[in-house]
From TrEMBL:
The chain crosses the membrane at residues 6-24, 36-61, 73-91, 103-121, 127-147, 174-193, 205-228, 240-261, 273-293, 298-317. It is a multi-pass membrane protein. The keyword Acetylation does not apply. The keyword Ribosomal protein does not apply. It is found in: Membrane. Keywords: Membrane, Transmembrane, Transmembrane helix. Its main location: membrane. This is Sodium:calcium antiporter. Residues 8-147, 176-318 form the Sodium/calcium exchanger membrane region domain. It comes from Amedibacillus hominis.
C-alpha cells in the first residue's frame, strides 16, 4: 500500500509541475526577460519546489538532515542524467542546437558549490549565537547563486525565434493559477517526504540512500517532464537551463535547511554523501563536455554515457 501511495504522489508531482511550467512559459511569452533567466531561474525554481519542501519537511517534521543531503545530491545527479540521456538520443539535432553561454558558467558555479559543500562537511565553520547558527559555507553558496542569477539575467545568447502565440489569459490570471498549483505542489511534496521516510524504515535503508533514490528521483520528475518536452519542440537551450539552474537552486535548499535545523549542522560526514559529492562533480564536468564539444557528436555521446554510468554507480556504491 505504501508503494502505491508513493506512486500516486509521484504522478501528482509530475502533473502539478507540468502545469506550473506551462504558466511560467505563458509569463515568458508576455515578458521580455532573457531566455537563460526564464529557463535557468524561473522554470528551475518551479520544478525545484518538490526538492525544497520535501527537504524542509525532512528537517522540521522528521528530524532527518541526512535525508536532505541525499535528496539534493541525488536529485542533482539524476537531473544531469536527463540531459545526458536526451543528448544521447538526439545527438544530431543537439549538434545544431543553440545553447546560451551562461549555462557553461552555471555548471562551473555548480562545481564550486559542490566543493563548498565538501568544505562545509570536512571543515565546518559555524557563525551565529545561541540556537541560531549557520555554516559559513551556506552563506558562500547563497552568494555564488545570486551572482550566477545576475549573469543569467544579462545573457541574451541562445535565443530562438518563436512564432507568435496567442495566450488568452491575462498576467493576473496566470499568476493566480500559478500560485494555486504551487500550493498543491507544496502539499503533495510534504506527503511524499513522509511516505519516503516510511519506505526507508520498511526497507531498512539509511536516510541518505532513501533520499538519493526515492526522494531524489521523485522530486526530479518535474525537471524530467519539462526537459523532455522542451527538447521535443527543439528548445535545447531552455532544457539545459532548467536542469543546470535546478541543480544550483537545489544547493540553496541546503542553505535553508541549515538555517532551520537548530539541532545541529545539516552537513553530515558519511560515506554515502561523499560518494554523491564525488560523482556529482564528475557528472557536472561531463555535462560541461556536452557544451564544449557540442559540434562533435562522438564526444558528446561519450559524455552522455559517462553521466548515466556515474548516476548508476553512485547509487550502487551508496547501498
Amino acid at each position: 500500500m505504501i508503494y502505491f501511495e508513493y506512486l500516486i504522489l509521484a504522478v501528482l508531482v509530475v502533473y502539478l509541475s507540468v502545469r506550473l511550467s506551462y504558466y511560467v512559459d505563458c509569463l515568458d511569452k508576455k515578458t521580455n526577460l532573457s531566455g537563460a533567466f526564464i529557463g535557468g531561474v524561473m522554470l528551475a525554481a518551479v520544478t525545484s519546489l518538490p526538492e525544497l519542501f520535501t527537504s524542509l519537511t525532512a528537517v522540521l517534521a522528521l528530524d532527518q538532515p541526512d535525508l536532505v543531503q541525499g535528496n539534493v545530491l541525488g536529485s542533482n545527479i539524476f537531473n544531469l542524467c536527463v540531459i545526458g540521456g536526451l543528448v544521447l538520443f538526439t545527438a544530431k539535432r543537439y549538434k545544431d542546437a543553440s545553447i546560451a553561454n551562461s549555462h557553461k558558467n552555471t555548471l562551473i558555479f555548480g562545481i564550486v558549490m559542490y566543493l563548498l559543500v565538501l568544505f562545509a562537511i570536512l571543515k565546518p565553520i559555524e557563525i551565529g549565537a545561541g540556537f541560531f547558527k549557520v555554516n559559513l559555507m551556506s552563506i558562500a553558496i547563497l552568494l555564488v547563486y545570486i551572482f550566477n542569477v545576475k549573469t543569467m539575467g544579462e545573457d541574451t545568447s541562445g535565443a530562438q525565434e518563436d512564432d507568435e502565440v496567442y495566450i488568452a489569459l491575462t498576467v493576473k490570471q496566470i499568476m493566480i493559477r500559478f500560485l494555486l498549483f504551487s500550493v498543491g505542489l507544496v502539499i503533495v511534496s510534504i506527503l511524499l517526504t513522509q511516505v519516503t521516510d516510511k519506505i526507508a524504515t520498511e526497507l531498512n535503508l539509511g536516510a541518505t540512500v532513501a533520499g538519493a533514490i526515492f526522494l531524489g528521483v521523485a522530486t526530479s520528475l518535474p525537471e524530467l517532464s519539462a526537459s523532455v518536452n522542451l527538447v521535443r519542440i527543439g528548445n535545447f537551450n531552455a532544457s539545459f537551463g532548467n536542469i543546470v539552474g535546478s541543480n544550483l537552486f537545489n544547493f540553496i535548499i541546503l542553505c535553508f535547511a541549515d538555517v532551520l535545523y537548530v539541532k545541529g549542522g545539516i552537513y553530515v560526514n558519511e560515506s554515502q554523501v561523499m560518494n554523491l559529492l564525488c560523482f556529482g562533480i564528475f557528472s557536472m564536468v561531463c555535462t560541461l563536455g556536452l557544451i564544449y564539444f557540442k559540434k562533435k557528436p562522438a564526444i558528446t555521446r561519450v559524455c552522455g554515457i559517462l553521466i548515466l554510468v556515474s548516476y548508476v554507480t553512485s547509487i550502487a556504491l551508496s547501498m
